[in-house]
Amino acid sequence: MPELPEVETYRRYFEATCLHQPIEAIDVEDRKLLTTDYATLTETLIGQTFVSTKRVGKNLFIYTNGGSTLHMHFGMTGDLEYYHSSLDRPRHARILFIFKSGFNLGFICPRKFERIGLVEGVDAYLKKKKIAPDALDISLEELTYNIRKRKSFIKPVLLDQSTVAGIGNWIVDEVLFQAKIHPEMLSNQLNDSEIGRIFSATRYVLETAIEHEANYGRFPQHFLIHSREWDVSPYEDAGRHKRCPCDKVETEHMQVGGRTTYYCPECQVLR
DNA sequence: TAGCTTGTTAGTTA
DNA sequence: ATAACTAACAAGCT
């Protein structure tokens, strides 16, 4: 589920656990997960310490005391877990950063869509990958420009990381719901009011999600996300409801751009 | 069980 | 050349 709020939560977790400890070893179960060859990765990082972090969209960058930059992308199912005893090694922790302190950071990737590697620099990486400013940093002007220059359904345009960075399939549905915009509105036909609502809703949804450490079950009841079907604990399941918060109709779902899309046919009408 | 899945990108088409 | 769209990627879950 790693959209922007998860990655921000991982970033804070990493900062709280992994800084300033010499790296003793790196264990890689499957080298396909690396974007840097294994020898270079270990030769560069062993003996160094992590000193600070930066997040842009769904990308986490970690700086070391030796001037290197490590990049992590969490794909669809990535996670981090810091632990001590090797008996506690989490399931699917396919890359381990083993610190001299005896603690370990597990990079968890059940479906192997995740990636780790060294990058030359954050700005160069973002430019090469055509990643737009972070969804919490982008200006209304730049967002407006990036939306209007495209001619497609607004949902896939917002999912495109070159429009704005950090929005994934669940957040985009929530943003469009809060902004009261149908996911199949054409991006180049949105007026200033509508784009303004997308801009505000993006910040509101992301800030709320980060506050709750991306724990969707705890989101406010007027969020559309409670209509989604997902794997939750029985506690969270009790908060799930298919009725739109507007209380007029049930939410519906369809495919937009090949992705499952939830929306309220009453609140989000095609114009 | 066969079909679904949160992200990204190579490949195809226009 | 560029933009839009689709399918594929890997593996786990139901």
UniProtKB/TrEMBL annotation:
Transmembrane segments: none annotated. The keyword Lyase applies. Pfam families: Fapy_DNA_glyco, H2TH. Residues 2-114 form the Formamidopyrimidine-DNA glycosylase catalytic domain. It catalyses: Hydrolysis of DNA containing ring-opened 7-methylguanine residues, releasing 2,6-diamino-4-hydroxy-5-(N-methyl)formamidopyrimidine. The keyword Lyase applies. Keywords: DNA damage, DNA repair, DNA-binding, Glycosidase, Hydrolase, Lyase, Multifunctional enzyme. InterPro entries: FPG_cat, FPG_N, H2TH_FPG, Ribosomal_uS13-like_H2TH. PANTHER family: FORMAMIDOPYRIMIDINE-DNA GLYCOSYLASE. Belongs to the FPG family. This is DNA-formamidopyrimidine glycosylase.
